[in-house]
Amino acid sequence: MKDFIYYAPTEVVFGKDSEQKVAELVSRYGGTKVLIHYGGERVRKNGLLDNVCSQLSEAGVKYVLLGGVVPNPRLSLVREGVELCRRESVDFILAVGGGSVIDSAKAIGYGVEYDGDVWDFYTRKAVAKSCLPIGTVLTIPAAGSEMSEGSVITNEDGWVKLGYSSRYCRCKFAIMNPEHTFTLPPYQTAAGVVDIMMHTMERYFSHDDDMTLTDNIAEALLRTMMDSVTKVLDNPNDYRHRAQIMWAGSLAHNDLTGCGTTGDWATHQLGHELSGLFDATHGASLAAMWGSWARYVYKNNVQRFVRFAVNVMKVDNDFTSPEATALAGIQRTERFFQEIGMPINIPQLVGRDVTEEEIESMAYKCSRGGKIEQGMFMKLSQSDIHKIYCNAALK
């Protein structure tokens, strides 16, 4: 097992009516003028936004509102938020929503504390030294941004999607009430579970094979997600299984399932280019790419894929052919994705065939013009990335 540092400073308040503690938590963490950041009308229609605003008003905490966050959150809105926070002397950001809202809030928090353009962090021209404090009322379990140090933003100029990580943006608190996920559409629910699973699988597919406890935790989380998503797709108001999904979203991306491992993250990078170019749902983009990535790299460590196939996907171990077992596990994973309504290739994701020019563009961007390799399970050059995209473009 590799040496590691596990850092999870976020205070989690989990359960029914947990959002009733929002004003107390904002005040405890120093908020006196708050930016309430959110996405669309869902949090207005279900009364959550009004509830949060009322609590802050009753506690004497001033606030300003900024909605409009969309999936694959936009740099233009981040810049608008930075200017709003400076103009209103905001000292705390409260994200009410899912991962896109939280990622946007983190970017705003960086930008307020920086003299230059916030995009500098995502292009690695600058290193964050501070961030406005952030809290969240989570409504969509998927990204795990409520307990991670990551943030991903899309720049509309070229539709480039990049991530940035630092400890400064870690949420001070995360309020999680699974009841707020009851109204999520089936597609969004399924895509969220794929994202949760992939956050664990990116860490799991590693050449570090001596982290038994971490592996067992990862495998249990993956099996639980496969069970729970089928339950909530049948019964959207199933609190027990909605709760499993919400908590798993945090555990999958606060590094618990990766302690002692060297993660891969190639599928995420491949998926980012898909969602950046086609504005596709993040979790669905990952489902569309994973099988093609897996078939391209599995021979680099067949036994790791065998363990996944047997322990997670419940494939019978063909001891005479590890490769057959590994490939059966990949196929079973794709079948599971299809069963919950997710795509397993690019045409299924975007609704049409993709062009060679689009594939070349994504491979170019993913490799930063051939300057970097992606992945750790297998180092992927621009040529490798192009081949994986080509494989994923087949129906």
Q: What are the SSEs and their pairings?
A:
Layout: E1 11-14, H1 22-28, E2 33-38, H2 42-45, H3 48-58, E3 62-66, H4 75-88, E4 92-97, H5 99-112, H6 119-122, E5 134-138, E6 150-155, E7 160-165, E8 173-176, H7 186-204, H8 212-234, H9 239-251, H10 266-278, H11 282-297, H12 302-311, H13 322-339, H14 346-350, H15 356-366, H16 382-392
Parallel strand pairs: 1-8, 2-3, 2-4, 4-5, 5-8
Antiparallel strand pairs: 6-7
Q: Mind explaining what this structure looks like?
A:
- The protein is α/β, with parallel strands linked by helices and 395 residues long.
- It is built from 16 helices and eight strands.
- The chain has helices at residues 22-28, 42-45, 48-58, 75-88, 99-112, 119-122, 186-204, 212-234, 239-251, 266-278, 282-297, 302-311, 322-339, 346-350, 356-366, 382-392, and strands at residues 11-14, 33-38, 62-66, 92-97, 134-138, 150-155, 160-165, 173-176.
- The strands form two sheets. Strands 1-8-5-4-2-3 form a six-stranded parallel β-sheet, with helices on both faces.
- Strand 6 (150-155) and strand 7 form a beta hairpin.
- Helix 7 (186-204) runs antiparallel to helix 8 (212-234) and helix 11 (282-297) packs across helix 16.
- The longest helix is centred in the middle third of the chain and has 23 residues, at 212-234.
